[in-house]
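[User] Could I get a sequence and structure tokens?

[Assistant]
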Amino acid sequence: MSGQWQSIIFDDPTSRHPMLSRVVQVMQCIYYAVDPAHPPPPTVMKWWHSQSLSYQVGESGYEPSIVILNLREGRQDSTMKTHFTINLNTMTVIDKFQNRRFPAPKAIRSVLGDLEEHARRTVREKKEAEVEEARRLEEEREERRNRVQAFHRCLIDQGLVDEDRSLSSDSPYCPICLAQQTSCCKCRIISCSNSDCAASSAIPISRCFFHPSTQFCTSCLEPPPGSLPELGKCPICLRLFCSAELSWCLGRPIANSGTVGTGPSSNIDVSGITQVHPVRPLSCRSIPCMSNVQGSRRGGRQCSNASSCWSVRSSNTKVCPECITEDTFSCPCGQYWTCGSCESQSSSARRLPTCPRCDNYYCSLCSYIKSCGVCRRAGLCNDCMEEEESVGVDHTPGENLLLKCWNCKDYLCKTCADGGGEPCKSCGQDLCKLCEDEEVRNCCGVTVCTECRASDEQCNDCSRFHGRYDYDFGFFEFGSNGGMTYHNF
């Protein structure tokens, strides 16, 4: 506001203000010019040297009428006294303690000019921001007036309000029942917030049961092809919810020739592809509704083929019973299932572990079957292992049985287990290739098993070395063969 003084305070030496270094330069120059025998203050300080760049805004609001730099000093009573004032308009310094005036030193006049320009730029930018904000608010008011007028025109056209009635476009109330107006979150069309009012029937707006402020008109509820609508009605409790509060089925895509579409959900709206049914909600997240659909199997299932299934759009999209085909795949562990319309059982077999005896398929994380940790070859499943009467046997020579490493507890087939890795240098027991890949080493880089490494904090070589050289001031180095060489100063 014009006529009022405003200030920029410089009292923090760690501040990153772009003018801080210039204020310190001016302060040191003035103090040195007045008293060369005493060193000037090193920088600004909150209690002893707090400086301020003050300016008074002119009538136009775009320029300061006067800019003053105040050099202040702290007192014992915690007050701050102004020692020097520098008028940046006239480049004049006033020593308020000595009651004298003198022109600003030439060495700092360019710096004072930078401070004055900074004050002018601050005033100008602040005024421009105020003008821009006022323009934006006026545009919002004008845009709302237009929407209110369209609301009134709709009520007049439907005979709900007399055309001769004087209606204010600035009023926030319904002209029929005087309830608060409300609007669609997307297109901003206005209607009445009172559901019993005739205006709300003329321009219907639907609201989320959990989030009443999330509301959309009828036209905005229609989703683009392949997308979820903004709101949906739970088929169990018949309430409207936001899209994220519902589980959905996108509708299995079918080519016009009758073949099943297998593309991801982002492609279900391409030309030549139709769907078993439109996008539809399955259930809301309330416990009664979820229990209802789970008991009747109407809640759908989540396909585990997240990379390419048409049904996977988000965590709340599933495959309803109508879209499930006969060629589904379900792992015995119950944690993996594919709908069959995106990936058949035969295609799953090409990439999932398969028992070589019973030909049953299992998911990659299933505990019913083990695979070789080196070549990923699948061994016998648990059921076939029981038939072989090999439960609990770690080392069995059968071709399809896996060997369990006593050290890392991983499994290897007989081919990958032959040859093994290096033996433990401490206890001498054999280690597998996986142990070698994991670099089971002790403090000297020697291969040892997990138990030996846990039981010995340091190997024998290191123990002998520390016992001999702990009080020396030398250093040691490791050779390529694992040996240590000590260098004494």
Summary: The radius of gyration is 40 Å.
